[in-house]
Amino acid sequence: MQTVLWTSFWAALASAFCAIVFNAGKYDILPGAIAGGIGWFFYKFLFVYLKIAEPIGFMCGAAALTLFSEIWAYVGKKPATVCLLPGLFPLVPGYSMFVAVHAVVTHNAELAGKAGYSALIAAGSIALGMAVAASTARLFIMVKKHKKPENSKLPDKI
Fold first, then answer.
1. DSSP letter for each residue of 110-122
2. Under a CB-based contact definition with an 8 Å cutoff, are residues 60 and 94 in contact?
3. Burial class (CB in 10 A: 0-12, 13-18, 19+), 61
4. How far apart are CA 112 and CA 129, in angstroms?
5. How far apart are the C-alpha atoms of 19 and 28, rounded to whole Å?
6. Which of 23, 39, 65, 98 has its CA at a distance of 20 to 30 angstroms from the CA of residue 123?
7. Phi and psi at residue 132, in whole multiples of 5°?
8. pLDDT tens digits, residue range 89-131?
9. Which of 155, 148, 12 has the alpha carbon at shortest distance from 89?
10. Which residue has the higher pLDDT, 147 or 43?
11. How far apart are CA 76 and CA 97, in angstroms?
12. Rounded to two decimals, what is the model's pTM?
């Protein structure tokens, strides 16, 4: 468990530096770092300790950091992408993409197919996790905003 926490700390630090590179505001660096740490923690915890398939880990990590970003955006009245983009930085399957491109350049078709497939599955899992979490958060926000007051005289159905 200590390894997961340690790597989550480094993922959070990488997300903080990514937020700095993206020129985020000084109050947006910490939430971006926390989002990156949360996403990496969920990914590693599910994949390493619970032995769940890696794409599920990617999807749950992306969903967790997206939910955190949406909540932070709602509370701070800012766009969610300010926190979401730096938080996604550690989860992006850059090494698999690099290996796939390198294998294509060196004419190793078998390795290119395996690494490309791995990168594609990881990227698709991240996108699916983000889409589900963002849609869920938006649904809850929409329901909260349009909640009918208890003493309202409006009809239940229109």
1. HHHHHHHHHHHHH
2. no
3. buried
4. 25
5. 8
6. 23
7. -65, -45
8. 999 999 999 999 999 999 999 999 999 999 999 999 999 999 9
9. 12
10. 43
11. 35
12. 0.83
Helices (H), the chain: 2-21, 29-44, 54-76, 81-88, 94-105, 109-145
Identify the band that residue 151 occupies on the pLDDT scale cut at 50, 70 and 90. low
Inform me whether the pLDDT recorded for 62 exceeds 60. Answer: yes
- pLDDT on residue 45: 93
Predicted local distance difference test score (pLDDT) of residue 88: 92
Contact status, residue 117 vs residue 98, Cβ threshold 8 Å: no
List the structure tokens of 21. Answer: 């590179």
Task: State in Å, rounded, how far the first CA of the chain is from the last one.
Answer: 54
Amino acid symbol at 158: I
| Amino acid making up residue 34 | I
Distance CA 4, CA 43 (A): 9
What mean pLDDT, rounded, does the chain reach? 89
- For 64, the 3-state DSSP assignment is helix
Count of all residues that appear for the chain in the document: 158
